UniProtKB/TrEMBL annotation:
GO biological process, one term: glutathione metabolic process
Keywords of the record: Eye lens protein, Transferase
PANTHER family, per the entry: GLUTATHIONE S-TRANSFERASE (PTHR11571), HEMATOPOIETIC PROSTAGLANDIN D SYNTHASE (PTHR11571:SF224)
GO molecular function annotation: glutathione transferase activity; structural constituent of eye lens
Gene3D superfamilies cross-referenced by the UniProt entry: 1.20.1050.10, Glutaredoxin
GST C-terminal domain ranges (all copies): 80-202
Enzyme Commission identifier(s): 2.5.1.18
A Pfam family the protein falls into: GST_C_3
Keyword Transport: no
Species whose genome carries this gene: Brachionus plicatilis
Start and end residues of each GST N-terminal domain: 2-78
Family label: Belongs to the GST superfamily.
Protein name in the entry: glutathione transferase
InterPro entries per the UniProt record, alphabetical: Glutathione-S-Trfase_C-like (IPR010987), Glutathione-S-Trfase_C_sf (IPR036282), Glutathione_S-Trfase (IPR040079), Glutathione_S-Trfase_N (IPR004045), GST_C (IPR004046), GST_superfamily (IPR050213), Thioredoxin-like_sf (IPR036249)
């Protein structure tokens, strides 16, 4: 079996999707959490940024690229070419929501209440509506695509968990998204990981 090491800060952020995939697949990996940044870690990172994945000693940057590779290895990318592209479409649309959050909320240092309110009523709702539509088109009850767990389900769960910290009821109008979240939380391996994972600043 290949050896895997995931290197990131002591947070969930852009590494949590990868951790969820390893957990769902039951594949062991080294979860390296950098606390001294930049220190020597920045120079050791392939592009001078985190996260990156080391596979059998080879460092791979760009989290979506290597996470897609893992999804294929662990049979969570889609059962055929069409299902794979549908899964990628959902992942990319969830990325739109995640990127808007990081750009507008995570980095905000002034007027955060106003920034969050604007994000929730504009960016978040628009992207959640798009995701709900895609899950309705491509998925079945509790899955974003097809009828088995995909990395799109895990990405959707992870990013909406962030959004829920800003508004507890924002997903009430999106039953398909809520059904996917229930599927993830009811998965035995994922439930164990979610219960045991550490509380972190982000």
């Amino acid at each position: 079996m290949p050896s895997y090491k995931l290197t990131y800060f002591n947070g969930r952020g852009r590494a949590e999707l990868t951790r969820l995939i390893f957990s769902a697949a039951g594949v062991p990996f080294q979860d390296e959490r950098v606390t001294d940044w930049p220190g020597t870690a920045k120079a050791e990172a392939p592009l001078g940024q985190l996260p990156y994945l080391t596979v059998d000693g080879e460092k791979i940057p760009q989290s979506i690229a290597y996470t897609r590779m893992l999804a294929k290895r662990f049979n969570m990318a889609g059962n055929d070419e069409l299902e794979q592209v549908k899964t990628d479409v959902v992942v990319d649309t969830v990325n739109d929501l995640q990127n808007a959050y990081y750009l507008k909320v995570f980095k905000a240092t002034e007027n955060r209440d106003t920034v969050i309110s604007k994000f929730l009523t504009e960016d978040a709702l628009v992207n959640l509506e798009r995701i709900e539509k895609l899950v309705n088109l491509y998925g079945s009850e509790g899955f974003s695509v097809g009828n088995s767990l995909k990395w799109s389900d895990l990405h959707l769960y992870d990013v909406t968990s962030i959004i829920l910290t800003l508004s507890e009821d924002i997903l009430n109008k999106f039953p398909k998204i809520l059904a996917v979240r229930r599927t993830v939380e009811s998965n035995e391996k994922l439930a164990a990981y979610l219960k045991a994972r550490p509380e972190t600043p982000f």
